[in-house]
Specification:
Elements (H helix, E strand, L loop, with lengths): L8 E3 L2 E3 L3 E3 L15 H12 L4 E8 L19 H12 L4 E7 L12 E2 L13 E2 L2 H21 L3 E6 L4 H6 L14 H4 L1 H13 L4 E6 L10 H13 L4 E5 L16 H11 L3 E3 L6 H9 L5 E4 L1 H5 L3 H9 L14
Parallel strand pairs: 3-4, 3-12, 4-5, 5-8, 6-7, 8-9, 9-10, 10-11, 11-12
Antiparallel strand pairs: 1-2
Helix pairs in contact: 1-2, 2-3, 3-6, 7-8
């Protein structure tokens, strides 16, 4: 029987040739203009050469004010589209599909001026105190996600992922640890979901393809969102047409995390089984056998690899050998493949 890791999966007409996904990882390699450069071309395209089914570009900020670092890729300007388009074309030339993660850092931003968040609470004792977002700030930011989506479409991406994890802006709205608002965006979880709902609705005005959302499905804090909250959010996202929940954890507050092989898989399994939506599994997945177990036991639908793909751009070939599968490689590599 063919290993499930190497079977295709289709989302709204976009077919991935296998279940291996390059997880979005900040490269901190752009200049202050937020444009793609030679590093990004080498970094991403080499993983496509390595036969990764879906290449997801790092968190790409929809406003300059929302950068995680001054060297993030950006999608706040039409001038950034040509570089992204060239990158997409380079990845697709090797048979991989493409995705981009659209994000905004909120109170974790490094912008030199004022930063924005749901509430005027810093991330930690060393963090800058953000301005509580006004209705106009919220409207402008939602519109920035809409514009970023349009630019992603113009660049030719196959899939959009909305970054609602790791304590960045959307995650801050979702979490009672960061959101102390008294208006329609705060309080009950239905209200805390409102900002993400508006972002997704705005994205859909510019996008007919698949939409993924990355969440932190565990905040590691007794007063934060709990499992039932994330199941609720996932069900609401499914109603809005989201195709897959990419399940990471942490980042909303500083707290120790017990890290071990596959430590986040149970969260993907929980969301998949209780919200009835496809999920992506991430978190110290290192071997083909480990990935295959996750898929065969229906714990997740896609395998998101991060550090392991940094170590080995040809991980797909390594996993295929481990699972007794044959996969095609580039013609130029046939003598060694």
């Amino acid at each position: 029987m063919k290993a499930k890791l190497f079977t295709p999966m289709t989302f709204k007409g976009v077919t991935l040739k296998n279940r291996i996904t390059m997880s979005p990882m900040c490269m901190y390699s752009a200049n202050e203009d937020g444009k793609v450069n030679d590093w990004h071309m080498t970094h991403y395209i080499s993983r496509a050469v390595g036969q990764v089914g879906l290449i997801m570009v790092e968190a790409t900020t929809v406003t300059r004010q929302g950068q995680i670092s001054p060297r993030d890729l950006g999608i706040w300007s039409d001038e950034q589209v040509p570089g992204l388009k060239k990158l997409v074309e380079g990845i697709k030339a090797h048979g991989s599909k493409t995705a981009i993660q659209l994000g905004h850092a909120g109170r974790k931003a490094v912008y030199k001026g004022e930063i924005l968040a749901p509430s005027a609470l810093p991330f930690d004792d060393q963090g800058k105190i953000p301005l509580e977002m006004t209705d106009k700030d919220i409207e402008n930011t939602v519109h920035a996600f809409k514009d970023g989506t349009r630019r992603a479409r113009e660049a030719g991406f196959d899939i959009i992922e909305v970054h609602a994890a790791h304590g960045y802006l959307i995650s801050q709205f979702l979490s009672p640890l960061a959101n102390k608002r008294k208006d329609k965006y705060g309080g009950a979880r239905e209200n805390r979901f409102q900002f993400l709902k508006e972002v997704l609705e705005a994205v859909k005005t510019e996008w007919e393809g698949p939409i993924f959302v990355r969440i932190s499905a565990d905040e590691y804090h007794s007063e934060g969102n709990q499992a039932e909250d994330f199941i609720f959010y996932a069900k609401e996202m499914k109603k809005l047409g989201v195709d897959l929940i990419d399940c990471s954890t942490g980042g909303i507050v500083r707290t120790p995390i017990n890290v071990y092989p596959g430590y986040q898989i149970s969260h993907a399994e929980m969301i998949k089984r209780k919200a009835f939506i496809p999920t992506g599994a991430v978190g110290m997945i290192t071997s083909g056998l480990q990935a295959e177990e996750i898929l065969q036991n229906d714990r997740a639908d896609l395998i998101f690899l991060a550090r392991e793909l940094l170590r080995n751009p040809y991980w797909a070939r390594t996993a295929a050998e481990e699972l007794g599968e044959e996969i095609n490689g580039p013609e130029q590599y046939k003598p060694a493949w």
